[in-house]
Amino acid sequence: MKAIQITKNGGAEVLEYKEVQLPIPQKGQVLIKVHAAPVNFIDTVLREGNMPPSMMPELPFIPGVEGTGIVEDPNGTHLNKGDKVAFLGVIGSSVYAEYALVDAHKLVVLDKEANLQEAAVLPVNYFTAYHMLKNVAKVEEGKTALIYAASGGVGTALIQIAKILNIKVVALERRDEKVENALNLGADYAFYTSSENWITQVKEAVGENSINYVFNPVAGDSIKNDLELLAPLGHIVIFGFLAGLGKFNLMEEAVKNFSKAPTLSFSEIYATYYNNYPLVESAMKELYQWLSEGKIKPIYETLPLTEAKAAHERLEKGLVRGKLLLINE
């Protein structure tokens, strides 16, 4: 089969489109003819070799941790050849390829009419958002959430699910055009974080100390702003460190806001995936039900699998709106 393979760590140029051996399913595994292979930031980190050694697949490897496709070989499982399926896989699931192996019990069987490209957007981004809203922050109807990088893959999902749950959304973006996009996605307010007075603008829009939840993939020194805006008993959820660790003392800053009794949580989907998969399974069922009912509208772009290098470059430059999918044509 054809696949994107990484034989050495480095930049996007190490992504090679080449002929590799067709994988053979073991007991409990299903062979999937891949239709859509989503591109995630974790793929770029693995490509560079910057994950902890225990989480790095051995070279050479095929990237990709989620996807959609058609069951090619059910391999004696409960599935049928021709079933449309979606899945969230482990690191090293090898999805940037014409075929991939997935554990049968980790597959979501889709409706026959399902759009495989729309369905491919859900596993990582929408589960991440769903999990943070419902399981980590345990959001309550009528409250207000601050969402960073609101036009990105997870940000888009956070806005859409927050609105289903009747949460007011304050979106943050680094570019003017993305501020408008966040409003079009359903955010109640959207602000340009490069503006010097964006914190004042948020306070004027929703009131002092009125942010109940913050969903932050940036971290760094941004947590100082989060604590300033946070309502009493508010909850900050950190799910990334795009700006690094920051130079401030977190404990010192938290003590300054001690009277608010803030909660700070970290969300990493594989901690849940490996330790409480039933939580993932139940979330996936509800998400795909919402998709079939038209309650969520995946935003995505596509490129052919052969253009994996360009896909990684677009993602790393912040040029992707929603999700970027590699498609087997």
Identify the notable features of this structure and list them briefly:
globular, 11 helices, 6-stranded parallel β-sheet, alpha/beta, 329 residues, 7-stranded mixed β-sheet
Question: Could you explain the architecture of this structure?
Answer:
With 329 residues, this protein is of the alpha/beta class. The protein contains 11 helices and 15 strands. The strands form 3 sheets. Strands 3, 4, 5, 6, 7, 14 and 15 form a 7-stranded mixed beta sheet that branches. Strands 10-9-8-11-12-13 form a 6-stranded parallel beta sheet, sandwiched between helices. Helix 3 packs across helix 4. The longest helix is centred in the last third of the chain and has 16 residues, at 277-292.
Quick description:
The protein is 32% helix and 26% strand.
Radius of gyration: 20 Å
Question: How far apart are the termini?
Answer: 13 Å
Oligomer: single chain
The coarse overall form would be globular
In percent, how helical is the residue content?
Answer: 25-40%
